[in-house]
Amino acid sequence: MHVQKNEVIFMYDISILELVEVEKEWNYILWGIENKIVNMDSFIKYVQIYIASSSNLDIPELIELAWGRHSIDETVELLKIASKSRVSSLSLDYNGYEARVWLYSILSYEMGKLKSISKFLDRVEEIYADFDYPIEIEGFVRYMPPVESEYIKNNSKEESEEKMYEYSKKFLENEKENLRKIIGRL
Fold first, then answer.
1. 148-179 pLDDT, tens per residue?
2. Global pTM?
């Protein structure tokens, strides 16, 4: 599903991070909310589980968020206030890699539920647009010029897509390693 940039739609569940073995951190969640890629129902559920599993939690802003009655701006503001609480362990400090973590997580998730290479590449095109056309993944977006001329040199559509898929696998392997080095964990 592709939408216009000015449309508000929240497409991705927070659980994607966990499914591809990325630690759920509040800065990633906040970035996802601010950039309108996180499904708000999954965010509310995450906050409710976080509250239920935290003994003696005294952060009224989180409790307020668990009700799920807030706009994006109000949610962002409540999260920021909650992070400044002296009893809070929430860290919302951006590390500069939030978009890369989400992009890696979503692409890995989509690859993991692969039905066909063609369908995966369809999703890549949508993700490419959702993330405002990151150059890092242009090499496996079908309508972009190929990274290597071998993609198009006397290849059938299926052969070209197979090469793009292999390129995407290499990208994800490298990105996982790079993010581990930069962030120290994933």
1. 655 556 678 888 899 999 999 999 999 999 99
2. 0.82
User: Contact at 8 Å (CB) between 90 and 79?
Assistant: yes
Q: Which of 84, 111, 144 is the last residue of a domain?
A: 84
Tell me the pLDDT tens digit for each residue of 65-95.
999 999 989 999 998 888 776 555 666 776 6
Same domain, 136 and 165: yes
Q: What domain count does the chain have?
A: 2
Angle at 110 between CA 15 and CA 131, to 5 degrees: 85
User: Which residue segment(s) compose the domain that 165 sits in?
Assistant: 98-183
Termini Cα distance of the chain? 28
Residue 74 has φ and ψ, to the nearest 5°, of: -65, -40
Looking at the domain assignment, is residue 164 inside a domain? yes
